[in-house]
Design goal:
Layout lengths: L10 E5 L2 E6 L5 H6 L8 E8 L3 E2 L2 E10 L1 H18 L17 E7 L1 E4 L3 E9 L2 H18 L2 E7 L9 E3 L2
């Protein structure tokens, strides 16, 4: 699968629940975390997915990501909205409280070449309580892996780079 260069472009969207971005620029982990800060948050959960140096016994030299960006950014935003509306409120909250289970979410996903050790995805979620933050972080990650129109290509040491195959971003 080879996508045209214009298909895999930087994109970002701001929604009431947070911000989502696809970028060729290295992810600013602290900036993403700071974007979900809120004085009403009792917890901030963060997931940082990095390029690891091996896969099934092979030495990985780098990853490359491409996306159908226009659709992928909408899909990611929909997943964030889903998380904000479907994550159950904590037992810590009484029924008379009107505090949302999530305060703010931010997702950054790399495009292009991502070297070993570099972040390829960062998800940050703030919430009044830790349980919802952890649950939402995983919900968003698994949703992106299942639904977002993003593909990755793994390059292995000692293998012909022209034969590296595109695969779903799992």
């Amino acid at each position: 699968m080879s996508l045209s260069p214009t298909t895999s472009t930087e994109a970002n969207v701001k929604i009431p629940q947070g911000v989502c971005a696809l970028t060729y620029t290295p992810l600013d982990v602290q900036g993403i975390i700071n974007s979900v800060r809120d004085d009403s948050a009792g917890a901030t959960a963060v997931f940082i997915g990095t390029t690891r140096n091996s896969f099934k016994g092979k030495v990985v030299t780098r990853l490359e990501y491409q996306a159908y960006s226009k659709l992928a950014i909408k899909t990611i935003a929909d997943i964030v909205v889903d998380a904000a509306t479907s994550i159950a409120r904590s037992d810590h909250q009484t029924s008379s409280q009107t505090v949302s289970s999530l305060i703010r979410c931010a997702v950054g996903h790399r495009l292009g070449i991502v070297a070993v050790g570099e972040p390829s995805i960062v998800i940050a979620v703030s919430s009044p309580h830790r349980k919802e933050a952890f649950v939402a972080c995983e919900f968003i990650l698994e949703g992106i892996k299942r639904k977002a129109q993003i593909w990755k290509r793994e390059y292995y040491e000692g293998e012909n780079e022209d034969e590296a195959e595109w695969k779903a971003n799992e």
